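Budget justification aside, the reviewers requested a transparent look at the raw inputs and outputs of the sequence design task funded under Objective 1. We therefore reproduce one unedited record. The lines immediately below are the structure tokens for a 119-residue chain.
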């Protein structure tokens, strides 16, 4: 069973919209996932604008890929490296610790994740 950054059972991040590399709602680690979509974050307008400016538009729907487009309040599995980049730039969206796969700790620190944890 997959574990989260707190060492307990990984819980789903979102099923509406459905997220995860495997589109199973979880931010679990998968060897095929080169982007490491292991950080469960709650989208903010600021992060979505930042991500779009970096060339990763998460807010525009892509019906051909069954992607609804995200808006503030949606939860989504982010690449650990992209979340870290946003954090360093001051745009990190809040995270759901129980839904962040423990493998993301190879990229981001638990202290950073806890600082940005949803309250």
């Amino acid at each position: 069973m997959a574990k989260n950054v707190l060492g307990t059972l990984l819980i789903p991040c979102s099923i509406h919209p459905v997220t995860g590399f495997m589109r199973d709602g979880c931010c679990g680690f998968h060897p095929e996932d080169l982007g490491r979509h292991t950080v469960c974050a709650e989208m903010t307008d600021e992060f979505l604008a930042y991500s779009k400016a970096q060339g990763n538009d998460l807010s525009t729907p892509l019906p051909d890929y069954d992607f609804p487009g995200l808006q503030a309040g949606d939860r989504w599995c982010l690449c650990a490296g992209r979340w870290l980049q946003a954090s360093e730039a001051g745009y990190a969206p809040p995270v759901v610790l129980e839904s962040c796969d423990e493998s993301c700790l190879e990229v981001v620190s638990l202290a950073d994740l806890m600082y940005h944890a949803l309250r």
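The longest strand covers residues 37-42. The domain at 1-119 is CATH 3.30.56.110 (Phenylalanyl-tRNA Synthetase; Chain B, domain 1). Computational costs for records of this kind are itemized in the attached budget.
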